[in-house]
Amino acid sequence: MKINQYLDSTYLKTPAQSGLTEEQTFEKVRELTDEAIAYNFKEVMIRPNYVKLIKDYLTAENSEVLVGTVIGFHEGTYSLEAKLAEANQAVADGVDELDYVINYEAFKSGDLDLVEKEFVEGTKLGLHFGKTVKWIIEIAALTDSQIADLTASIWKWAQENFEEKDFAKIFVKSSTGFYITEGGKPNGATFEGVKIMLDNAGKLPVKAAGGVKTPDDAEKMITLGIQRIGTSAAKALLGEGEAGTGY
Ligand SMILES: O=C[C@H](O)COP(=O)(O)O
């Protein structure tokens, strides 16, 4: 199975998280981008501060690799205004796809109005500029029934606010890859969690992100029905290099 075009090749660690310097971090992002060009990956998924430099670099290289960035990363608890400001800046910098972290804590505490509002406004902003949006629901923070409810709510809000032609540009995404779990519980895209998302997402595409580490994992996710995989080990998913190794 040729999976290159399913892959959002991802590097999201800040210098504080990786222990690298700013310069080394940018070097990593550049390497990730060169690899994405060489392997014809769908997208590079990077922090907002690199969007402009990397978009300009890809344009100069005549590359079709897309640039995606994360909004409200990684906790999702930022205000709607802060998320929209970050998204607007990313659009001005040339981003192709916006991966928003939904305010899943607000959802868990029952503030559905807040979550609906940010979904509608954030999606509107992206679609207005012709961008794809993805909503990260952080499945490791949710019970199975919360995964089902939040995904179904997103599908309901999409139908109420957007048109059929837009649905392919509104993803539901599983995880940030940064959520801290206890007792070795997986923090990323489990097959079970992703299956629940797929069962409740209606016509919206699903992105599995976090913890997809081997060619088998990738193939299984694609067979389940996902449209995109977010991974910091894109080459390993092609069976190149050691399984699970990457950025
Ligand atoms: O797509 C987003 C994730 O941050 C990638 O997670 P990963 O390092 O487990 O592949």
The ordered string of helix (H) and strand (E) elements is EHHEHEHEHHEHEHEHEH
Strand order of the largest sheet: 1-2-3-4-5-6-7-8
Helix content: 40-55%
**Uncertain regions: pLDDT < 50 for 5+ in a row?**
none
Number of strands: 8
Give the class from helix and strand content and strand pairing. Answer: alpha/beta
SS summary, helix count: 10
- Bound chemical compounds: glyceraldehyde-3-phosphate
Strand content: 5-15%
The chain-level mean pLDDT equals 96
Radius of gyration: 17 Å
The biggest beta sheet, please? Answer: 8 strands, parallel, barrel
Shape label: globular
**Through-space gap between termini:** 23 Å
Keywords: Cytoplasm, Lyase, Schiff base
InterPro entries: Aldolase_TIM (IPR013785), DeoC (IPR011343), DeoC/FbaB/LacD_aldolase (IPR002915)
GO molecular function, one term: deoxyribose-phosphate aldolase activity
Organism: Epilithonimonas ginsengisoli
Question: How would you portray this structure in words?
Answer:
The protein is of the alpha/beta class. The protein has 10 helices and 8 strands. The protein has an 8-stranded parallel beta barrel, surrounded by 7 helices. Strand 3 (66-71), helix 4 (80-92) and strand 4 form a beta-alpha-beta unit. Helix 4 (80-92) packs parallel to helix 6 and helix 7 (144-161) runs parallel beside helix 8. The longest helix has 18 residues, at 22-39. It is globular, with a radius of gyration of 17 Å. The model has no long low-confidence stretch (mean pLDDT 96). Bound molecules: glyceraldehyde-3-phosphate. Glyceraldehyde-3-phosphate binds next to strand 8. Keywords: Cytoplasm, Lyase, Schiff base. Its EC number is 4.1.2.4.
